[in-house]
Amino acid sequence: MQRISVSLPGELVERLDALAGRLGFTRSALVGQLLDAPVADILRMLGDLPLEPTDGDVRRFRGESAELLEATMRQVMAELEDFKQGEGEQ
Protein backbone atom coordinates (compact mmCIF):
# COMPACT_ATOMS: atom_id res chain seq x y z
CA MET A 1 0.00 0.00 0.00
CA GLN A 2 1.34 3.44 -0.90
CA ARG A 3 0.52 6.58 1.06
CA ILE A 4 -0.36 9.78 -0.84
CA SER A 5 -1.53 13.24 0.08
CA VAL A 6 -4.62 14.74 -1.56
CA SER A 7 -6.21 18.14 -0.92
CA LEU A 8 -10.01 18.12 -0.92
CA PRO A 9 -12.66 20.70 -0.01
CA GLY A 10 -13.61 20.52 3.66
CA GLU A 11 -17.25 19.78 2.86
CA LEU A 12 -16.25 16.76 0.77
CA VAL A 13 -14.02 15.46 3.56
CA GLU A 14 -16.94 15.78 6.00
CA ARG A 15 -19.19 13.79 3.65
CA LEU A 16 -16.49 11.15 3.15
CA ASP A 17 -16.03 10.85 6.91
CA ALA A 18 -19.77 10.52 7.47
CA LEU A 19 -20.07 7.86 4.79
CA ALA A 20 -16.98 5.98 5.98
CA GLY A 21 -18.34 6.01 9.53
CA ARG A 22 -21.73 4.69 8.42
CA LEU A 23 -20.12 1.92 6.39
CA GLY A 24 -17.47 1.04 8.98
CA PHE A 25 -14.51 1.90 6.71
CA THR A 26 -11.58 4.19 7.25
CA ARG A 27 -11.61 7.30 5.08
CA SER A 28 -8.60 5.93 3.20
CA ALA A 29 -10.28 2.57 2.50
CA LEU A 30 -13.46 4.29 1.31
CA VAL A 31 -11.61 6.60 -1.08
CA GLY A 32 -9.59 3.67 -2.42
CA GLN A 33 -12.77 1.66 -3.06
CA LEU A 34 -14.53 4.60 -4.69
CA LEU A 35 -11.63 5.35 -7.05
CA ASP A 36 -10.46 1.85 -8.01
CA ALA A 37 -12.96 0.87 -10.72
CA PRO A 38 -13.46 4.35 -12.27
CA VAL A 39 -9.71 4.90 -12.65
CA ALA A 40 -9.29 1.48 -14.30
CA ASP A 41 -12.22 2.23 -16.63
CA ILE A 42 -10.79 5.61 -17.65
CA LEU A 43 -7.36 4.09 -18.31
CA ARG A 44 -9.01 1.41 -20.47
CA MET A 45 -10.93 4.01 -22.46
CA LEU A 46 -7.83 6.18 -22.90
CA GLY A 47 -5.94 3.13 -24.13
CA ASP A 48 -8.60 2.74 -26.82
CA LEU A 49 -8.25 6.40 -27.86
CA PRO A 50 -5.69 7.06 -30.62
CA LEU A 51 -2.70 9.30 -29.82
CA GLU A 52 -4.04 11.87 -32.30
CA PRO A 53 -7.81 11.47 -31.96
CA THR A 54 -10.23 12.79 -34.55
CA ASP A 55 -13.31 14.76 -33.53
CA GLY A 56 -15.28 11.53 -33.96
CA ASP A 57 -12.91 9.66 -31.60
CA VAL A 58 -13.31 12.37 -28.96
CA ARG A 59 -17.13 12.31 -29.28
CA ARG A 60 -17.13 8.52 -28.93
CA PHE A 61 -14.89 8.75 -25.85
CA ARG A 62 -17.19 11.34 -24.26
CA GLY A 63 -20.21 9.16 -25.01
CA GLU A 64 -18.56 6.08 -23.50
CA SER A 65 -17.47 7.99 -20.42
CA ALA A 66 -20.97 9.42 -19.91
CA GLU A 67 -22.51 5.95 -20.24
CA LEU A 68 -19.94 4.55 -17.80
CA LEU A 69 -20.63 7.32 -15.29
CA GLU A 70 -24.38 6.74 -15.50
CA ALA A 71 -23.93 2.97 -15.05
CA THR A 72 -21.61 3.53 -12.07
CA MET A 73 -24.09 5.92 -10.45
CA ARG A 74 -26.93 3.41 -10.91
CA GLN A 75 -24.78 0.74 -9.25
CA VAL A 76 -23.84 3.02 -6.34
CA MET A 77 -27.47 4.03 -5.80
CA ALA A 78 -28.58 0.38 -5.85
CA GLU A 79 -25.90 -0.56 -3.32
CA LEU A 80 -26.87 2.38 -1.13
CA GLU A 81 -30.51 1.30 -1.25
CA ASP A 82 -29.49 -2.26 -0.29
CA PHE A 83 -27.46 -0.82 2.59
CA LYS A 84 -30.41 1.26 3.81
CA GLN A 85 -32.73 -1.74 3.65
CA GLY A 86 -30.19 -3.82 5.58
CA GLU A 87 -30.07 -1.16 8.31
CA GLY A 88 -33.84 -1.28 8.66
CA GLU A 89 -33.74 -5.03 9.28
CA GLN A 90 -31.41 -4.66 12.28
Describe, in plain words, how this protein is organized in 3D.
With 90 residues, the protein is an all-alpha fold. It has one domain (10-89). Helices cover 79% and strands 0% of the residues. The protein has helices at 10-23, 27-48, 55-89. The longest helix has 35 residues, at 55-89. The N and C termini lie far apart (34 Å).
Tags for this entry?
mainly alpha; extended; single chain; 90 residues
Strand content: under 5%
List the domain count as a whole number: 1
Helices and strands, in order, run as: HHH
- Stretches where pLDDT is under 50 for at least 5 consecutive residues are none
The count of helical stretches stands at 3
* Count of extended strands: 0
Shape designation: extended
Rg calculated over all Cα atoms: 17 Å
Q: What percentage of residues falls in helices of 4 or more residues?
A: over 70%
- Secondary-structure content class: mainly alpha
| Amino-to-carboxy terminus distance | 34 Å
Output mean pLDDT.
81
Largest sheet properties: none
Short description:
By secondary structure, the protein is mainly alpha-helical. 79% of the residues lie in helices and 0% in strands. 0% of the residues are buried.
Which helices and strands appear, and what pairs or packs with what?
Layout: H1 10-23, H2 27-48, H3 55-89
Helix pairs in contact: 1-2, 2-3
